[in-house]
Amino acid sequence: MVILAFSGGGTRAAAFSYGVLEALRPIELVGPKGGKIRMLDEVDVITGVSGGSFTALAYGLYGEKLFDLYETSFLKRNVQGELIQRVLSPVLAWLARGDAYLLLLSDHRPRLPEIAPRPPSGAPDASWPRLPPWPAWVAPASVGIGIGLVIASGIAVFVAAGATGNRLDDPDTAFAIAADAATSLTILASALVTARLTGRLRPWQFGLARLQVVRSVGWMFVALGGFVLAFAAVLAPFVLLGALSLDDDSSSIGSSLSTGGLPVDKASGPVAIVFATLGIAVLAPICEEIFFRGVMFGSLRRWKGVWVAATITAIVFSAAHLEFAPVIFADRLIAGFVWSLVYARTGRLLPGMMAHAANNAVVIGLLLGWDWQIPLLVAACVGTVTLVVSPFAQRPGRVLRPEAVIA
Whole-angstrom Cα distance, residue 236 to residue 24? Predict the structure, then answer.
């Protein structure tokens, strides 16, 4: 058995270990059967640390192709400087998939700022599209169509309120739940209608190429954690300056976030609470994520990149709720921004839907005065969202080769 162990030492160690491979390549030995064999082919194990690990990994990935690309693509480049730049750059630090040196070794590296998420195993082949094929005009068009459909839906609600004897400023519970559901479905319809103008609709265009539920749950916690940390960082200066309070008074953060209200209250029956929860913490997250992150963010991302697209989408997302109190607006603004970044990172819309559902479920539980029931409500809503979306997701297909992912 032949074992090569490459030591560390930065680029010098990488060059030395590469020289070892080059030296072994032309050496020929007489095999057991009398034929000639290359000494390099008799190597059974290659291991390395630090700089030597680059050469070991590159040979394991590329084999003989290493001798055609390694010297020019790695050894004669300022790799350390480029790696530092990749680590420090917020775009690359968030969006780059895999280890940076794998991208450095690739002849077809993604161009900034659009480093695509790793293609899901449901992608049909190595030509998996990185972004939905929607031009930039889809974003304003979706807003325009959405406003038109919401106005039409509002007129229908107004007529229905008159026919049923409901007052719009104080409707009964069933009417309020139905009106909220109609608004969510209107938002979904506007997204689908606008996207359909560009051609045939496919699941991957909406981040539904493959759900990957377990990973999505993990990214849901990342999305929620990022949202909470960012929101806390924004509010901390105001709390320290005394502009906001953590106490139970009119200036408290909890009071500011609770002004929206619910179509149900503590006195409502279980049936009304269930239907209200389905509308607010299941239907609304699905419809809003498809519209704002799936369609709007997807089209804006092709136009100006991730960060501009996430910012614009977050502003529109927060403004669309028509609540402009500073704390409430900032709450939704940050949530929309973070969930857009998670979608850009994963290529899947389900983590954002889960985070959106969990957030709404927590708000419902708090406004109803619940405590131990809130985690159960969150789990139920997240699970229901997954079950509702699953039939519309694209089925898994052939798994891509690692080199197809890197390229």
Answer: 61
